[in-house]
Amino acid sequence: MDITANEMQMYMVMKSIYDSGIPICFKGSMVLNAFLNESGFTDNVRQTVDIDANWYFDEPPTSEQMVASLQSAIDHSKLQIDVKIVRMYGNNRSAGFVLMDRKTNTELFSMDIDVNRPMPESRLYEIAGLRFYGVSPTQIIADKICAVSTNKVFRRIKDVIDLY
């Protein structure tokens, strides 16, 4: 499987967060791609432009705590990336972050993080030597079936493609 430079940066950020011990479990296309790669499916799959994750903690984190934790993890890995929050989480809304190239101040990719949702089954993934925790394959399938079983299917055609 060919991994684009942008995807490699996203996987490096995911590894940084995993290594830091922040209570985050990844989900979405980045995890699906890692699973498919581990399973021997090496054809190019659908590209993505963001990282999706769940943050679990006893107390809901503040925006400042989230940014500081993510930035510390990224800095510890010596990645030249800055984290900015663009949307605070709320009821049925994920926190939104933009990750910027520190040298050029240009947007590299975004990250959406749900906070303290029910914890799905997860497992350790590895792609290109980079490890991270992500939701299980059965959870990926369940989430996609749920999305395409509603009127959301017209906005989530990518989930139909992923299921195929």
List keywords for this structure.
164 residues, alpha+beta, five-stranded mixed β-sheet, two-stranded antiparallel sheet, 5 helices, 7 strands, 27% strand
How is the topology of this model organized?
Elements: H1 5-20, E1 24-27, H2 29-38, E2 50-55, H3 63-76, E3 81-87, E4 95-101, E5 107-115, E6 122-127, E7 130-135, H4 137-148, H5 157-163
Parallel strand pairs: 2-5
Antiparallel strand pairs: 1-2, 3-4, 4-5, 6-7
Total beta strands: 7
State Rg.
15 Å
**Fraction of residues in helices?**
25-40%
Numbering strands along the chain, what is their spatial order in the largest sheet?
1-2-5-4-3
Overall shape: it is globular
Element string (H = helix, E = strand): HEHEHEEEEEHH
Q: Segments where pLDDT lies below 50 for 5+ residues?
A: none
Distance between the termini: 18 Å
Estimated structural class: alpha+beta
Average pLDDT taken over every residue:
92
The largest β sheet comes out as: 5 strands, mixed
Task: Characterise this structure.
This protein has helices at residues 5-20, 29-38, 63-76, 137-148, 157-163; strands at residues 24-27, 50-55, 81-87, 95-101, 107-115, 122-127, 130-135. It has a 5-stranded mixed beta sheet with strand order 1-2-5-4-3. A two-stranded antiparallel sheet has the order 6-7. The longest helix is centred in the first third of the chain and has 16 residues, at 5-20. With 164 residues, the chain is of the alpha+beta class. The mean pLDDT is 92.
